[in-house]
Amino acid sequence: MDGIDDNREQDVEVGTEIDSLMQETKVEKPVAPVTRSRVRLAWIVSLLCMVTATILLVVRDVVEFPTMLGKAHSVEFVQRLSTNETKRLAYFFYATDDGQACNALIAGKKLRQLGARASIDMVAMVSEDVSQATQNHLYKGGVIPMPVERWRRSTGNAFYKDALTKLRLFEERGYDRVVYIDSDTVIQRNLDVLFDLPHAIFWAPRAYWLDYLQPFITSVLLVVDPNNALFAHLEHAIAVEKEPQYDMDVLNNEWKHQCGILPSEFVVLSTHLQSDTDKFLFGYKDLDDRINHTYIHHFSPSNPYNKPWNMNPNDMVRDPNVHHMYYDLFEIYWNQRHLHCPWLD
C-alpha cells in the first residue's frame, strides 16, 4: 500500500508541475475528447440546417411563379398572393349605353350568386351616355357606377367604336387589382381565384379560335393591377398607330409576349357549342366535360343568331342536333334581363 501511495503522491507532484509549466508558458489545458452524444447532436443540427435550406429553396421557386400558364387546361394555381383583405379588389365592367349597363348588372349579380367574396366590389365604368336613372339602378343592384370619359374612334368598325373605353381599367382608380369581364357574356363559375394570381402586366385567356396568330389573347376577360404608366403606354401606342386598332389588337401588339396567359376554358365562344365542338375540347373528354369546366361563355356571331338583346326570343328555334347549352345561354340572358332590368322593357 505504501508503494501505491508513493505513486499517487508522485502523480500529484507531476500534475502540479504540469500546471505550473502551462501557466508559465500560457498554454491552455488539453480539452477533453468529444463524446458520442456531442457528435450525434452536431450531426442532427447539421441535418436540420440542410432540411431548412431545402425548404427555403422550394418556397423561393414557388414564389417565382411563371407568368405563362400556356395551353394546359389545369387551373390549380400553385402560387397565390396574400389574402390580405386590405387590398382593394373589384370586378370591372364597362357600359356606354343603358343596355350595356343592364348587362353589367346581370353579370355582377351572377358573380354574387356564384359566391364572389363580399369584400370584392362590383364596378361598372359608365360613360356620359348611360342615363342617371340606369346608374341609380346599378347602385341599388350592388354595382358601383364609376363615370369615365368615353374613348371613341371616329374611324373604323362602328360596332367597336367605343371598345377602347374598356382600356381605362388600366388607370389607377383606388383598386390594387381588378378582374374585367365583357358584359356580353354568361358567367358560369366563380372567378375569385383570379385575384390570387401573381403579378403580370395583365392576365388574359388565349384567343384559341385564332390558332394561326398564337400566341394571341382575348380581351373578353382581363386581370389587371392598375398602373398609370401602363395606361400612358397604351395611349401613346394608339396615338402613333398606322391604322385603327381596337382594344384586343392593342394589347396583343404591345404585350402578348409579356402577359400571363390563362387556359382557354376561361372564355369559350358560344358558337363552339354549335360547331367545331370536337376541335376545341382543350383536353377534356367530351363537350359536356368542357362545358362543366368553362368559366365564361361569350356570345359570338353564329348563323342564324347573334347577340340576344338584338333578337326576338320568339324567333329562336332549337335544332336537335345542336347541344342544348347553346340555346340555354340565350334563355338565361333573356330571363336575367327581365328580372334585373325591367325598366328597359
Automatic annotation (TrEMBL):
Which ranges does the record mark as transmembrane? Answer: 41-59
Entry keyword set: Membrane, Transmembrane, Transmembrane helix
- Tell me which domain of life the UniProt entry assigns to the organism this sequence originates from: Eukaryota
Q: Gene3D superfamilies attached here?
A: Spore Coat Polysaccharide Biosynthesis Protein SpsA, Chain A (3.90.550.10)
> Has the keyword Zinc been applied to this entry?
no
List, alphabetically, the InterPro entries matched: GNT1/Glycosyltrans_8, Nucleotide-diphossugar_trans
Tagged with keyword Membrane: yes
Q: Which PANTHER family match?
A: GLYCOGENIN SUBFAMILY MEMBER
Could you identify this protein by its name? Answer: Nucleotide-diphospho-sugar transferase
